[in-house]
From TrEMBL:
Species annotation: Hydrogenoanaerobacterium saccharovorans
Cellular compartment(s): Cytoplasm
Something else known: The active site is a redox-active disulfide bond.
Record text on cofactor binding: Binds 1 FAD per subunit.
Protein name: Dihydrolipoyl dehydrogenase
Keyword Heme assigned: no
Single GO BP term: 2-oxoglutarate metabolic process
Positions spanned in the full protein: 92 to 558 of 558
Boundaries of every Pyridine nucleotide-disulphide oxidoreductase dimerisation domain copy: 348-457
Length: 467
């Protein structure tokens, strides 16, 4: 029997899109119901952003120990990796955060229902769980996220083959691993395994790694990866995976030199994610989908073509980032509240947690060229930054992009120490239309890696001071 519930807003999915929308709506006085079929926090907290960064940290500690002699610290004996503890610690971090969201649901009087939601009509949704509900809502936000894409390679289902989700709970460190896909997830895992001391191969179909960043940044991370011992093959297509008699994986790939084999203990497939509409019965709403059915189509207000029906986050297939999902959630709720707010994607920061990190925001050079934007670049190398040298991280650089007509900073990329933290400064600058002068007139603390931003801004004028 179905229990009936009336609510102002029903949010389907409790990831960073859905749970943030729910909290923001509740804070604005709406009666909110949130349906989540798995764990609160979604992909991001359970099998995405947070667990990967927990592993990044463990792997970095391992690398620091390998490099400790350089810093004048001698460690007796051999460092070993206890992967069971690495995964256990990762789980502790994730569950602490998931519990935190559960607390926030209660604190904000959000009716959190554990169950799987499916549409009956645009504003009526069935939720099947321990108890079954029929929810009638004034407005509905779909935030069902994304799922791992399938790829048709023979052998993809072999037990030696992992995806990002299974890799995050694998409590044995492979001695060697082949990673299929040199995108964000593939490269983060490549450095995680390398820093843990494993032999790592990356096979990428495109002609460069991380195609979302400028080619020079791809080249820099390629050089750094190769110097660290990661074996990278670009323009290479994986054709099959087999398992050998001793249980290891044999990956066959083709490139212009012919067919090659790489034998490793494990394989990790990281070729991308796609919008998740599984079991949602979205067709009951008449909501328009994107081309080839890839996710729900929305306008800048995060509205679908159906009245009172909104979609946010990965399910819209616009940008697959947690902070974009959250921001879209807030925009959707503001529009539900009768404000007229549009999503602005001109200053979306993007971070890749390789070693060193890569971060970018706004337009990159490729996009400027594609859109015929006249621009000037100022680059400053981390080799000229004192703090980076104390950290033994002299590699990388910052690149600021200024639009010639407006003289404003419209983009920036950083590959180097602390890039993930530094990018917020550029985001604030771009979001608020600052130019090189405003950044150059700002006092940056010494010695910090943030000084590279100041130097790059000075570089547009008479030149950087330390280069
Ligand atoms: P999701 O987080 O996918 O949440 C959707 C939720 O909806 C899920 O909990 C699901 O169970 C639920 N759901 C689905 N269907 C139903 C239904 N019918 N009924 C009820 N509930 C349903 N992004 C970053 O910004 N930074 C990073 O460092 C980063 N690292 C990542 C690393 C990995 C390995 C992966 C896989 C992703 C990473 N991402 C990262 C991407 C990020 O996780 C996603 O962009 C983000 O989680 C999208 O949020 P969302 O709310 O749209 O969807």
């Amino acid at each position: 029997e179905l229990q009936h519930i009336n609510t102002d807003l029903l949010v389907i999915g409790g990831g960073p899109g859905g749970y943030v929308a729910a909290i923001y709506a509740a804070k604005n006085g709406l009666k909110v119901t949130l349906a989540e079929k798995a764990e609160l926090g979604g992909t991001c907290l359970n099998v995405g952003c947070i667990p990967t960064k927990a592993l990044v940290k463990s792997a970095e500690i391992c690398r620091n120990i390998y490099e400790s002699k350089h810093f004048g610290v001698n460690i007796d004996g051999v460092a070993t990796v206890d992967m069971t503890r690495v995964i256990e610690r990762k789980n502790e971090v994730c569950s602490r955060l998931v519990d935190g969201i559960d607390y926030l649901m209660k604190k904000n009087n959000i009716n959190h229902i554990k169950g799987s939601a499916s549409f009956v009509s645009p504003t009526e949704v069935k939720i099947e769980g321990e108890t079954d509900y029929l929810v009638s809502a004034k407005d509905v936000i779909v935030a069902t996220g994304s799922k791992i894409s399938n790829i048709n390679i023979p052998g993809i289902d072999l037990p030696v083959v992992m995806n990002s989700t299974s890799a995050l709970s694998c409590n044995q460190l492979p001695k060697s691993i082949t990673i299929i896909g040199g995108g964000v997830i593939g490269m983060e895992f490549a450095f995680i395994y390398k820093n843990f001391g494993a032999e790592v191969h990356v096979i990428e179909f495109m002609d460069r790694l991380l195609t979302m960043v400028d080619p020079d940044i791809s080249q820099e991370i390629y050089d750094i990866a190769t110097e660290a011992g990661i074996k990278v093959n670009t323009s290479s297509k994986v054709v099959k995976i087999q398992s050998s008699t001793d249980g290891s994986a044999v990956v066959t790939y083709q490139n212009e030199d012919g067919e090659h084999l790489v034998v490793t203990e494990k394989v990790l497939v990281a070729i991308g994610r796609e919008p998740n509409l599984d079991g949602l019965m979205i067709d009951k709403t008449d909501a328009e989908l994107n081309e080839r059915g890839r996710g729900i189509k929305v306008d800048a207000h995060m509205r679908t073509n159906v009245e009172h029906l909104y979609a946010i986050g990965d399910v819209t297939n616009i940008i697959q980032l947690a902070h974009v999902a959250s921001h879209q959630g807030i925009v959707a709720v503001k529009n539900i509240l009768g404000k007229n707010v549009e999503m602005d994607y001109s200053a979306v920061p993007n971070v890749i947690f390789t070693s060193p990190e890569i971060a970018s925001v706004g337009k990159n050079e490729n996009e400027c060229k594609a859109n015929n934007v006249g621009y000037t670049v100022s680059r400053f190398d981390f080799a000229g930054n004192g703090k980076a040298l104390t950290m033994n991280e002299p590699r990388g650089y910052i690149k600021l992009i200024k639009e010639n007509t407006t003289q404003k900073i419209i983009g920036g990329s950083i590959i180097g120490a602390d890039a993930s933290a530094l990018i917020s400064v550029l985001t604030l600058a771009i979001q608020n239309g600052l130019g090189e002068e405003e950044i150059a007139h700002t006092i940056f603390p010494h010695p910090t890696t943030s000084e590279v931003i100041h130097e790059a801004a000075m570089g547009f004028g008479l030149g950087a001071l330390h280069q």
